[in-house]
């Protein structure tokens, strides 16, 4: 199947900063091959998915306020169809981790991630979420959320400007476009990859959750 | 000061006094409760506002410094107690004298392990129940393997400890249930759209009526006070941006003033004017965002978009001068980072022109609405006494009729030369808190209008030694943040780093009072009240 | 304009769907046995209905998002297709393939049943709406009554959703929803009853026909206007929309009764909310604004003639969309009520006014003081 240059509306392909990464994904997609019918169905579904990314309202600190600005009239993320911020993780598509994640928040944060319905994505927004940022040396701050959940896009800044956030969600949308929903690079497998890299998390992920934990693993 | 000293010395012969910069009384633990009670109840003194409790670790001993303010004379004094027992330190609680003391003592317990005898609720406040060690002690072992990052749910207990002293002087530990077994407890937060961040309320409800709320903090506790102890003074400044990110300038201002006071530096006049301008601009921006998010909590989403217009305009002005939208890091010790942008004056004037029209629009859109009035009037009434006892400062405190504006009570920078009114209302309900903030926008605009044409020429930065060392001593500085009183306490041992830096923030009392004023109200009122108290979670957790 | 003239002018158009469907029916019957014809018609109607249902819902999603954006000085969706026309389609594709999370410790049967109940309730209401001249799926003599009965099934779905999720937020949301719907059903029912009194029938087609001379909002003047205002308020409450969106009050109960639903099950609730909005506006158009009848001004024959050329379906839709606009306007302007204020509004104000209004209407009918 011919895979064209992946971009979003009104942004030329050359303007993206990390095309090699997407090209690598496209290569993977091409190598695995797929038949015409499933391929075009994939295209349709990916068109839908990449254009309808609903965020989870989740913010812990400063970056959250920039996320509010992102929704406001000046930056208006509604233009891209991202404004349907759901408060319930079950209905959201991606999680913008805006702010510091501290030790006490980690279980809650992880739980929220688990509650998101597949396919789900995570954007680590701001230096605190990426590495702990200015609080890295603290006794009560998680040093980056990558050890807790798989991250799809990193958005640096302290806090990132709303433009940077738009760019990062557009990157995510581009990434969604080169995924295969039927067969191939499916989300379930991606989760397996994550566990291969972080074996210690697997035992925690599939375990007997406490009574009130609420999802079965399929 | 001297007659206060005489009075106390007569009643408490064991007390010793210190009067260097601030008045400090040192008493043995056993007499603390009586001393504070006298200070609070004496009709001349009326030290009825507990500003903060600073936990201290002096290596050989542990202790607390209580900062008290008189609502009558506006005088601030400190009371110091200490204990030499490091294994099981115990002090007497003053939780029965000041409501807020219960939470401040919990904070000290959390950080230093000091148990307060008589405090009804001795749980950790910020850290989870199984945390090992007391992080702000100097001998704290911060090996991450002791307290690993875990994705397993933290242990939850429905019981709290209480130490009581029997008549014979023996101290006994009691267990107390937080909720009755038959309570229907709903967990609101930490991830909840109405908590403005990651605050957690465990709420016992009866149908739609709230019976009791238990506040859990610490979901964004980043240990800023501990981090500051490892950084030199200029480096500590940048944390001020990240606590109450709306009052970034004000908090910077506070810390700079405190360090300048200690080092004997005075910022040039131009820098002082610029600082005040920035403070007031950020106050307008902060209140605008408050109006928007508060209305959004009540379900009127559209208001947010109108208020954010003004905020964006202010952020533009700040960005042109400071180079950032939120974390400015603009005030430096002895001045400001860089000079004003060339268009600053014109931009601010343009802003001042649109503010009255915008406020009119907000009132038209929201304040006069009959649903709004029904939702807010008489909801969450906080009386004057409770406001003082719970240490609710800022616009919320002033809505309860308490004149607590630091710009008036303890003027700093050039505030005593400026003309502005302290906005005071006496209803104490959510509506008063809301209206107070709208009026404060007008007052801030008034201050800016006085200054904008009179920015003096000159230096923006005083001479500051390359390596800044503060002399041995302690300093306490108050400023008015956007949400209320912000205090910085610095204790120095003469090195380049603070020995102890305590940050007193207005958001923590605002969250603690929620339980008190929501009882018997509806769930929806919790949202109204929480919104109107306008707490910022990273500000309370630090 | 006299009624004969009007009938004449409307028969000038090819707009009488009744004759088309009758012709189609007789054609089918001439080819195949009658049971077969009926079955085929049912299937065709069902497919058509589903299609209309989905398209309307998608349209409404975009409509609301765009309207809300303009209220908030924003642009709203504009990247997916021209003016963001395909935004709702993208959302639909996304929603269709989203994982449906299986939960432990819930009542699985009721949990799965709830979204279907909600969507079926709103779909049944479509059956009696008069879409156009003669374009009605089923016309029977208690049409309005049937519509009211069906729309109240929806609350069952919401209650079940809240109960079966085994979550405290959803439970509170469902209880709120229950008390709200039961209360406001009264006002909706009474205000419609007031108008039915005036029309003298429960038959939807006849109600429309009775408005050929004047729309009810004009001919029954004061009581009709009161009934319309009450209906608008109560109807907004019935659809759980702001300022009455307590059951799903985002800032209080995360997402209310459907907090635990994901994927297409959530999609059903999402769609049903918009469809209920359409139904409420459609019924308002039917009861007060002459259903599918064109807008006529007495004496302006040329104008009326032109209006007559606009198909009746369009008239009905336009009227419904305009009323929906008002309801959307409510949502994006007013803050939310509190539960006790909500119930107070209904039981202390709307209900007595409504009863009084009913008496007023009967007096007007008896004295003949109407157009």
Describe this structure in words.
The complex is a heterotrimer of chains A (218), B (542) and C (371). Helices cover 41% and strands 7% of the residues of chain A. Chain A is of the alpha/beta class. In chain A, helix 2 packs antiparallel against helix 6 and helix 7 packs across helix 8. The radius of gyration of chain A is 18 Å and the shape is globular. Chain B has 2 domains: 165 residues, Beta Polymerase, domain 2; 318 residues, Cytochrome-c3 Hydrogenase, chain B. Helices cover 38% and strands 19% of the residues of chain B. In chain B, the strands form 6 sheets. A 5-stranded mixed β-sheet of chain B has the order 1-2-5-4-3, with helices on one face. Chain B has a 3-stranded antiparallel β-sheet with strand order 10-11-12. In chain B, helix 6 runs antiparallel to helix 7 and helix 9 runs antiparallel to helix 14. Chain B is globular, with a radius of gyration of 23 Å. By secondary structure, chain C is an all-alpha fold. Chain C has one domain. In chain C, 70% of the residues lie in helices and 0% in strands. Chain C contains 16 helices and no strands. In chain C, helix 3 packs across helix 4, helix 8 packs antiparallel against helix 11 and helix 8 runs parallel beside helix 16. The N terminus of chain C is likely disordered. Chains B and C meet through strand 10, helix 7, helix 8, helix 10 and helix 17 of B and helix 8, helix 12 and helix 16 of C.
Summarize it.
Chain A is built from eight helices and four strands, in the order ααβαβαβαβααα. Chain A has 218 residues and is of the alpha/beta class. Chain A has a four-stranded parallel sheet.
Largest interface: A-B, 43 and 48 residues
Major beta-sheet overview of chain B: 5 strands, mixed
Binned, the helix content of chain A reads 40-55%
Low-confidence stretches of chain B: none
Give the tally of β-strands of chain B: 17
How is the quaternary structure best described? heterotrimer
Give the mean pLDDT of chain B.
85
Which geometry of chain A do the CA atoms define?
Answer: globular
* The CATH architecture of the largest domain in chain B: Orthogonal Bundle
Q: State the domain count of chain B.
A: 2
Order of helices and strands of chain A: HHEHEHEHEHHH
Percent strand of chain B equals 15-25%
User: What structural class results from the helix and strand content of chain A?
Assistant: alpha/beta
Strand order of the largest sheet of chain B: 1-2-5-4-3
Radius of gyration of chain A: 18 Å
Q: Would you tell me the structural class of the helices and strands of chain B?
A: alpha+beta
